[in-house]
Amino acid sequence: DEMESIRSNIKLWLDLDQPTHSDTDIEALQEALEGRFVRGESLRHFVRIFHQSILTYTNDVLKSTTIPQFTITYLLDALKEVGPSYEDSRIKALKELDEPHVAMLLAARRILVRDVDLDEEHVLPKPLTLERILDEYIHKFKHGSGVDVSFMIDEFREMVEIGIFRPSAEHSGVLPLRYKGGRLIDDMDEPTLRRLPLHMPLQLQREFTTSVVDELKGPTELIEWGKRTN
Questions:
Q1: How far is residue 30's CA from residue 215's CA, in Å, rounded to a whole number?
Q2: pTM value?
Q3: How far apart are CA 145 and CA 134, in angstroms?
Q4: Closest CA to 209 of 112, 80, 103
Q5: Helix 149-161 crosses helix 99-120 at what angle (to 10 degrees)?
Q6: 166-167 and 198-199: which strand pairing?
């Protein structure tokens, strides 16, 4: 709670103060002190930045005959010294996927982005399923040709095992949650697997961004397709 109070006060200060720093520097600091902290992935990163800025400030106080003002410069310098937060292990895992995995991942992303738009229009979207993912990739990228569906399904099972996709909540009494936890779902027949409601444990707007898509392994045509929704 104390760290949250400190973070909130710093954010308010950043909003009100008019420092002589570039907008890019300020945005980077805001991201470090607010965005990543909110995601819960790097409280330690926030603490390291704050701690380093206090150490530098304290050293300046000891060397000065007057008490200097604690300015944003201390935080910006600390951010540069500490470096960026560690990369989320889930994002790192995405960047290690091979092309068939990336194809399904991007197909799912396209579907989910469109579903967000439907939700904003108060239209209830269908659950994300392997059936929808395969249809998106086969018909909207491959145009119905040159896809080994059995191979893609095997690749999908691996993605469930490593947690890229997760079974969603109970649906129609099938109880897919009994397969959660990264378990390889070899005992599920293909028709059931295709209909299994899924979710991706990633936030589209804050984590699975187009900049992350640019770093995935795959042909340029596939990557560019994954950034679009049409």
A1: 24
A2: 0.59
A3: 12
A4: 112
A5: 80
A6: antiparallel
